[in-house]
Amino acid sequence: MTIAPAKLSDPTVRAFVNAVNAHDRDAFMALLAPDATMADDGSDRNLAEWTDREIFSSHGHMDVHRESNGGRSLVANYRNDTWGEMRTAWRFTVSEDGRISRFETGQA
Fold first, then answer.
1. Alpha-carbon distances of 76 from 1, 32, 55, rounded to whole Å
2. How far is C-alpha 98 from the geometric centre of its chain's CA atoms?
3. Long-range Cβ pairs for the range 51-59 (8 Å, 24+)
4. In DSSP terms, which residues pair with 105 in a beta bridge?
5. pTM of the predicted model as reported, rounded to 2 decimal places
6. 1 has pLDDT over 90
């Protein structure tokens, strides 16, 4: 059973999931701190290149199954046109201004 994005506990993470699922690059980028970083499967990646390839140009979509850590850790089925669907874990660091300073994802 999935958790509707509107029911996610953390407002910044909720907005992140909504932006991914709506393919709204502007809303997504507005959520990130200017110096935001990210990692995929334990390796730091170039955030702009990764998000373009793995989310926006490949029509990424998240179906959240579980949240923890106040809503800043998720387990979701993630799918895109490149890789199909896989179970993934997402961890977010949200700064005091409510922007994402780092997110990490990988297979769960």
1. 11, 20, 14
2. 15
3. 53/82, 54/80, 54/82, 55/20, 55/23, 55/28, 55/80, 56/23, 56/25, 56/28, 58/82, 58/83, 59/23
4. 40, 90
5. 0.95
6. no
